[in-house]
Amino acid sequence: MIVFPNAKINIGLDIIARRNDGYHNIETLFYPIGWSDILEIVPAKGATSTLTITGRGVNCPPEKNLVMKAYNAINEAIPIPPVDIYLHKTIPDGAGLGGGSSDAAFTLIVLNKLFSLALTDDDLARIAAGIGADCPFFIYNKPMFASGIGTTFERSNVSLADTDILIVKPPVSIPTAKAYAGVTPQRPETPLKDALSQPCECWKNMVKNDFEPSIFADNPTLARIKQQLMDIGAYYAAMSGSGSSIYGLFKSDILSDQNKKLFGECDTFIGRL
Fold it and tell me: Any catalytic annotation for residue 8?
């Protein structure tokens, strides 16, 4: 069975409070986008499960890959036969796009279908929550307002239909722990849900990512990319998650190859939402 695990962007990210368990309560809108990996899962040829990765390199041993963690999580809940997993990576890591989390969630979905486990989406989301904070979102894969540590979901009616997106991923890596260390949690004057209810043309003055100030201070290239996206016509631009990808949302189809060349050797993705 072959599927195409897609990425996501965060539209707004408010860090509300630090929790006693060391995590943070956040509010954000997860929105699925078309940048996708390719995942194939088939019954194993041998006696044990295998993982073969092509495309972008993944800097971790197979047993620590989220895809194998997803297999092991289902296998612990409901024993299943071994499988051979083939993953072709196109979504960059360390981008705030959730590529690894999506791969894991789609692995759960495929295994559920492949072995007729009859698990519901909510069942799969509970398993996914034990793999990574972003994983449950990709089980539903619809625009979702997330709160708590990012695993409490509410369906959102925000629609970006017929919106063009340009994502720029520079060769910069932002450790998540460092990103959180640079933020002082606080409640925003305008709750994110209220800000997102305004016309999208107003978002640039109301919808923010709390990671940006400290990360941009250390990485001025990211601030420059955001400004370039606004300069070529984005009505909203922001960093996704804790970075380092920056995306711009456009009302018109102006995303030419010439605009793409503005960003040099950065990884880029152009698509329609």
Answer: yes
